[in-house]
């Protein structure tokens, strides 16, 4: 069943995905199992986009499918930002990248884990990230990109944070197909992840470890 969800997402079969998710819930699958299956399918969509098999409209369709899944009453994945959050995450897709899927999944997982999430959206410049950091003082900055040139804007973001004496106040985690260990070193970030729950759990460890400037 879960593998069928992966395949249906990969093929952008919206009605079939919704039907399979509802059935999986009925059969006792957990929220995490379902979202991990959806994520696996979306990862395949991202790979198709990278190789040119899918275009921007296909990415948008994948995003729509995920948003429809979030709205299902049987899942009730999204929570409002909690009054007493365990930490604040500033979230965005970096400049020149319109990819929204991974960011949306990360946001949902972070909200379910008790974080307050400030979602700046897509195609966000380093200057805007720094301006919001000054305003909101987040504990973590989470930046997503599937485009190869996104890494240079991530590096610019880190350099601006250093210049403004803000870097020591936050942790930076990178996500998306363009990120890897070497990218973390190049950018000057703290970590990267290709798995939503791994990334959110790392953010939780940072909060529990007292790394936040506000804890």
UniProtKB/TrEMBL annotation:
Keyword Transferase on entry: yes
Highest taxon above the source species: Bacteria
InterPro entries from the UniProt entry: Cbl-bd_cap, Cobalamin-bd, Cobalamin-bd_sf, Met_Synthase/Corrinoid, Meth_synthase_dom
CC per GO annotation: cytosol
A GO molecular-function descriptor: metal ion binding
EC number: 2.1.1.13
GO biological process, one term: homocysteine metabolic process
Gene3D superfamilies in alphabetical order: Cobalamin-binding domain, Methionine synthase domain
This protein's UniProt keywords: Cobalt, Metal-binding, Methyltransferase, Transferase
Keyword Signal in record: no
Designated name of the protein: Methionine synthase
Organism: Eubacterium limosum
Taxon lineage: Bacteria, Bacillati, Bacillota, Clostridia, Eubacteriales
């Amino acid at each position: 069943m879960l593998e069928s969800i992966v395949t249906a997402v990969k093929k952008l079969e919206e009605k079939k995905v919704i039907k399979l998710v509802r059935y999986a819930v009925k059969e006792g699958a957990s929220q995490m199992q379902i979202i991990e299956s959806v994520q696996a399918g979306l990862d395949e969509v991202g790979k198709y986009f990278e190789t040119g098999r899918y275009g921007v409209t296909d990415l948008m369709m994948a995003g729509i499918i995920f948003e429809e899944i979030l709205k299902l009453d049987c899942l009730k994945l999204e929570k409002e930002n909690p009054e007493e959050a365990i930490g604040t995450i500033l979230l965005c897709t970096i400049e020149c990248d319109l990819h929204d899927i991974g960011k949306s999944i990360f946001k949902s997982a972070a909200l379910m884990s008790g974080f307050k999430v400030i979602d700046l959206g897509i195609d966000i410049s380093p200057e805007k990230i720094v301006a919001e950091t000054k305003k909101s003082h987040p504990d973590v900055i989470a930046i997503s990109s599937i485009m190869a040139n996104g890494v240079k804007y991530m590096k610019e973001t880190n350099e601006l944070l250093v210049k403004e004496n803000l870097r020591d106040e936050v942790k930076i985690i990178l996500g998306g197909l363009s990120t890897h260990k070497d990218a973390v070193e190049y950018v000057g970030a703290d970590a990267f992840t290709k798995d939503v729950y791994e990334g959110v759990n790392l953010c939780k460890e940072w909060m529990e470890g007292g790394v936040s400037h506000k804890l």
